[in-house]
Structures are given as structure tokens and as C-alpha cells.
Specification:
The structure is a homodimer of 377-residue chains. The first copy, chain A, is of the alpha/beta class. Chain A has three domains: 56 residues, Winged helix-like DNA-binding domain superfamily/Winged helix DNA-binding domain (Arc Repressor Mutant, subunit A), CATH 1.10.10.10; 127 residues, 2-Layer Sandwich (Nucleotidyltransferase, domain 5), CATH 3.30.420; 146 residues, ATPase, nucleotide binding domain (Nucleotidyltransferase, domain 5). In chain A, 41% of the residues lie in helices and 22% in strands. Chain A contains 13 helices and 16 strands. In chain A, the strands form four sheets. Chain A has a five-stranded mixed β-sheet with strand order 6-5-4-7-11, sandwiched between helices. The interface between A and B is large, with 70 and 69 residues. Chain A binds a DNA duplex (30 and 30 nucleotides) through helix 1 and helix 3.
Chain lengths: 377, 377
DNA sequence: ATAAGTAAGGAAGGTCTACTAACAAACGTG
DNA sequence: CACGTTTGTTAGTAGACCTTCCTTACTTAT
């Protein structure tokens, strides 16, 4: 039949156990300290099973007993258990920028403990990998708690195993980054596209945990990460979210559409990327600048309306320079999307800046580890 | 934290068993008769476990022994087991048409055994439900094999439990169709949006089993069903795929954009729906008609390009009248999408008519049952 | 023709996991 | 102070899969 069968995961005997373990951790992570009995109710497991799982998690040090709950209700007072989110660290690296590799040591809640940055100084290929490895070692040394793993958000197309299929700006082609770094550092390493990590971060830590989220990252280029029905969209060739090179400007009366680095004309990047925006606004007074930003917002809205409709998104968040995005651009984009979609789709849509600010991609890299190692999303 | 926790399914003790059972059935369904040892290799379960599962499936009558394999290899010859796809029936109903309810009795491979249709004669609301129930009874009586379940593809917004949230054309609002019919007919009933069932049918039976598929249904209106990473996209309010009312035509020099039934202007339905297309072509000679169809194809391509890019789709299939769609319209749409997306995204895209033809939605309704009852996707 | 190697399928026994049932502890309430 | 309520634990049970070992049946090499 020529049909591509997806690699359906087999159900090992311990599979159910791992799933239930993740559910317990997930609840503790998102809802804070909880009693075993409450966990049992939330997960619809029995109290016995939950006690067993909690005991195992305590043995691992991931969870701790926190004493009796203060509130006075009838019956035996519950003793709370909580996740030790501050007693473990995660190393997160954001490679989105072309000039700097930015990294951080974070707690499991995404609080930054230490930062390190390294200038790329034009290094690409293997040299860039070596610089990245050094940065990771540096960060691992800076952590003073056990490190759960390393999460990396990188530009380019990256498959689900953390192999960089292609990242032209770093001259990486088919580089098994996750596997190599994991072997070199002896720590679990997870790698994903930077826009995808941004979406993941916003979804898990930024309060966008609804059902349809897209995060648009605006920097040197434009990228997008999409979370639908609770899962990151990968796409046919792991290239989902590559919105930067969709044509959005047609040749018109003003002459031909602007030329893009990719060789075609009128790509979204030629109007929305930061360099393009800065060029466009250079020398304009504020009022004229606002008009230009609104024009970009409208173009963006026209392109996003079909996507918002097709996926029935509930959240659309932006990451990038506030001074450019968070004003007429976003307002016009939102208005345009609403004008161009069904009321039920457009009215529900919430559109705004990423609540995690500059650190979205970094937080997302941390969430990548949480998700990969502990099953928390 | 205000975060909406998805209803994470708990892992029952029998959960793994059910999963493995589905995997075995899935392989037998898609790959045909297979030996137990081959099944074990494909599922990465042990031969013992597979034998056990196969024995259970044989006891249920879903699977049968087919004797030794002809091919001569070393070692003990394998005895093949196969799924008894012709010994069970599924009832499928397509409610997409405003005038007719079309139903069929099908085998598990989607072959039609019997057809029944009922004119709606303007019936809506409860009367339409009663007519549907009668049609189902009729079809159940026409089946001469055990019936696994009933699958229904209906217009409107439908949640994952098979409740019609809203279907204005039928005057259905919050009708628990699946639950009610299941109780009335004493058979499992599954209901989904007709465009979604079309996508499901094309995905499972139409050879579009890649990783990103969108099916566009063009009839009275325009709808879309999307399968990404192997799962149907539901969307925030179960309204994913509602592409018919995205604005695609702007007011221009030719005057204002055409008015849509929804009250706004320039919706996709005002150019792509069948009535609109017929009106547009009325009285034109073939050459002029082709120009018009190409113009519609271009408008469609412009709207689809961002969606194709965002999801990195690999298949884009159309269901509707061949004479209108399968010509300049599709050719131009494909060319437009390719012009307006990155080469890696657009070049990989395969675009064409649904391979299941008229029966896409019907086959999809059958797949809905296969998926819901047997875990086959 | 006979021995050796290979593969399929089944039987026995072990382990893991989560469930049910029953119970002790600790607290409000009448 | 007795009682009901809720929590968390102990003990026993059932399900599901695994590993190991065996028989069967065929191809291939000597």
C-alpha cells in the first residue's frame, strides 16, 4: 500500500508506570503542593498507587514531604507533598541569535540561577559545535544542584531526535547535536527549533496552556512554533512553522516586492524581520513610523488569518523587540485577523507579546528538558 | 495559575494491553496477512505476547489463521494470520449535503456493501435526528455481518465526544448525537465533522498516510479537515478547519468584494463554493471559464500558502465536483502555493483530488469507527 | 542420505504494577 | 466522649508482559 506507518511506540510493562509517574509530577508542578489523596482524585488512580509513586519519587529526591495542611477540615489532616523544583537545575541554551549563544542555569520553574554568553565571532560548523559544548560545560559547572538535562533551542530544521537537519546560518547539515552533546557531556540533551522551544515555554510556563497556541519569533528572521491539542506540531519534514519565507507582498503599483535573502520576492521576512523594520522606520517621525508599523501589521494579519482559522488557535504570541512589535503593529494585526476570520474564531483569539519576554526561547529549552526527562508539559 | 490542564488519560492496568492489541490490528489492517513472528518484530513485542494477543483476537473472531506462507525460506515456515475485514460491517453516514442523507454499509476495508439515502425534505432539528436514526436502523438491518459501529460525518462544529455543538443548517445546537444514537441503536456511534471524516478517510484509506494532510471539501460551503503528526486537529473550540469564512478577496478597483451569507465580504466561500463557481462560469465559453477557474485557484493558493508553510503539510487533497476543481483551478492553486512558499515546503507538497472520490466523507465515517472501536488509524 | 543450522510457535515460571479490601491514625462534630 | 470522616498504609490478588527453554519443521552443507 506504500503507506508510511508511523513508529507506534510499544507499550512496555513499565510504560503505564512512567505515564502515571508523569501525571503525578505534572499535577505537582502545575498545582503546587498537594496531598496524596488529592493526587489520587486528580489522576483517578487509587490512593495506594499514588502513595507508591510518591514514595518512588521521594527516593529519587524529586518530591518531598511538606507536613500537614493548615486548613482545618473533618477527617485526618492531609500531609502535603511537593515537587522540589528549586533543588534541581536545568541548563538551557538559546542559539537564535547569529552573534551570541545565550545560556542559563535555571531551576525547574524557569527561574534563572546563572547566565553565560559566548560570542560566536563568526564560527560555524564544527567550531560552533565546540563553542556550544564549551558553553554547556561552563553552565554545568555553574550549577550547584543536580542537573536534570540540557535543553537547546537552535535555528534551523531539527528532527524529533535532536538532529539538526539543516541550519544554514551555522553551516550545520545533519548534525546529531543531541546525541553528540549527550555523549560528550554525559547528561541528557534535548534540541529543538528555537521557535518551537519558544512555543513550548509559553505553553507550559507562560500561561498559554489552552488548546491552540502559536508563537511568532521576530528577530534576524521570522519563525513560528505551534502547539495544537497539547503537542508541538512537527510537520512533514520537521519544517513546521517556517513562516518567514511565505510571500506576503505582491508586486504592485509601487514597483516590485522587496527582494529577500532567499532569492524570492515579498517574503514575510522582508517586512517583519527586525532589520527590515528598522530600515523601514529609519528617519521617520513617530507618527509616520506608526503608520508604517500598522501597514506591516495588516500584511501580517492577512497572512495569519488563514492559519488562525485552519487551526482554530486561541493564543497568538509574539517574541521580539517590544518597541517595534507591541504597538500599532500588533494592534493592526489583531484587528486584521478579526476582520478576516469568522467571529467565533477571531473573537476568541488572544493576541499579544509573549509573557516570558526575552527569555521565552530559553524557558522553552528548559521545558524541553522537563518534558523529555520528567514528562511535564 | 489558571492553567487548563488537559484531561490526561490515566493508565489503567489493561491500558497497555489495549494499546498492543491496537498495534497488532493496525499492522494486520495496513500490511495484510502477517506471521506472528513478523508481527512481533514490527511491534517490538515478544513472540509470546503477540501469540497471546492473536489468540485473544481470534477468540473475538477479528482475526483468522490463514495457513503456511508459500515463500521458501530457511527455518520453520510461518503460518499467516489475517484480519477478517470482510466478515464485519460498519455503518457510515454522510450528512454533508443539505438535501440528502447518504449512508452505506461497508466492510472494514471501506468496500460498499449496500447504500441507502433519505431526502431531508427540509427537516431540521429533532425531525432530522429522527430521520437519521431511521436511516441508521435501515442500514443496520441491511448489514448481514456483525456491525462494529456507526460512523457519522456531519456539518457543523462537533466536539470529541460526538456532541454537535452547532450545525446551523440542521438547526442542531448542543445535540449529543453520538450518545443519543448509541443508546437508541444499541451500537457504538461516533460522530465528527464531515471535513474531518474526509481527512480521516483520505489519511487511512486513501494512501495519504504521511505526516501532514489537509482535505478541502468544496460543496455548498467550504470546509477543511487537517491531520498533523498522525492525529486530527481539533482546535480551541473544535472549530479547526473552518476555512470557508476566511477573507480572501479584498475590495478593489472592480468594486466591493462579493457579499457572503455570513454577512461579511470576500469570504473563501464566495469564490470557491460550488454555487459561487457555477454562477461565475454561467454562460462562459470553455476558454473564458478556464481563465476564471485559474483566477479562483490563485486566490485559493494565496490563502493556503501560509497554512501549508505553518504546518509543513505534505498532502493537500480536494473533494468536490471534478469538472470544477480538477483542472485549471487546482493547477493554478498548486503553482501559486509553490511560488509563495519556501522550496523545501512547496516542492514536497502533493496536491490533487481526493483518491476516494465522492465517498471520502463516507469512508472517513467508517474509519472513525475503526479508530474508535479497534484503534486503527 | 544425514547432520547442522535456522526460524516459528508454544509452555512454564518470574516480575512488575495497579487494583481491592481492610485497618490504624488523627481530626471535627454532636 | 462516642462517632463519622478522611488520610495513608498493609496485605493479598489479578493481569500482562518478559525471559528461558522446548518442540516442530524446514533449508543447506557435507
Amino acid at each position: 500500500m506504500g503507506r508510511v506507518l508511523r513508529p507506534t511506540a510499544k507499550a512496555l510493562p513499565g510504560h503505564a508506570r512512567a505515564h502515571n509517574r508523569s501525571m503525578v509530577l505534572q499535577h505537582l508542578f502545575h498545582s503546587g503542593p498537594t496531598s496524596r489523596a488529592d493526587l489520587a482524585r486528580s489522576t483517578s488512580l487509587t490512593r495506594v498507587t499514588v502513595s507508591d509513586l510518591v514514595a518512588a519519587l521521594m527516593a529519587e529526591g524529586l518530591v518531598e514531604e511538606l507536613g500537614a495542611r493548615a486548613e482545618g477540615k473533618v477527617g485526618k489532616p492531609a500531609s502535603l507533598v511537593g515537587m522540589r523544583t528549586q533543588e534541581f537545575h536545568v541548563v538551557a541554551v538559546d542559539l537564535a541569535d547569529d552573534a551570541w549563544m545565550r545560556g542559563a542555569v535555571m531551576t525547574l520553574t524557569g527561574d534563572v540561577v546563572a547566565r553565560r554568553s559566548v560570542a560566536l565571532d563568526g564560527r560555524v560548523g564544527d567550531a560552533a559545535v565546540i563553542a556550544l559544548e564549551d558553553l554547556c560545560r561552563d553552565l554545568l559547572a555553574a550549577a550547584d544542584r543536580p542537573v536534570i538535562g540540557v535543553g537547546i533551542g537552535s535555528p534551523g530544521v531539527i528532527d524529533s531526535l535532536g538532529t539538526v537537519v539543516e541550519a544554514p546560518n551555522r553551516d550545520w547539515y545533519d548534525v546529531p547535536l543531541a546525541a553528540d552533546l549527550s555523549a560528550a557531556l554525559d547528561v541528557p540533551v534535548h534540541v529543538a527549533n528555537d521557535a518551537n522551544t519558544a512555543a513550548l515555554g509559553e505553553f507550559t510556563l507562560g500561561g498559554a496552556g489552552g488548546s491552540g497556541l502559536m508563537v511568532l519569533t521576530v528577530g534576524q528572521g521570522v519563525g513560528a512554533g505551534i502547539v495544537v491539542d497539547g503537542a508541538l506540531v512537527q510537520g512533514h519534514r520537521h519544517a513546521a512553522g517556517e513562516l518567514g519565507h511565505v510571500t506576503v507582498v505582491d508586486d504592485g503599483v509601487d514597483g516590485p516586492a522587496p527582494l529577500c535573502a532567499c532569492g524570492r520576492r515579498g517574503c514575510l521576512e522582508t517586512v517583519l524581520a527586525v532589520p527590515a523594520l528598522r530600515r523601514r522606520l529609519a528617519g521617520l517621525d513617530p507618527a509616520a513610523a506608526d503608520v508604517e508599523l500598522a501597514a506591516v501589521g495588516r500584511v501580517l494579519g492577512v497572512a495569519l488569518a488563514p492559519v488562525v482559522s485552519a487551526l482554530n488557535l486561541s493564543e497568538l504570541r509574539f517574541s521580539g523587540p517590544r518597541d517595534l512589535l507591541d504597538g500599532p503593529l500588533l494592534r493592526t494585526a489583531q484587528a486584521t485577523v478579526q476582520q478576516r476570520t469568522m467571529p467565533v474564531v477571531g473573537a476568541d483569539l488572544r493576541l499579544g507579546m509573549a509573557s516570558l519576554g526575552e527569555d521565552v526561547a530559553l524557558c522553552g529549552a528548559a521545558v524541553l528538558v522537563l518534558s523529555g526527562q520528567l514528562g511535564i508539559t
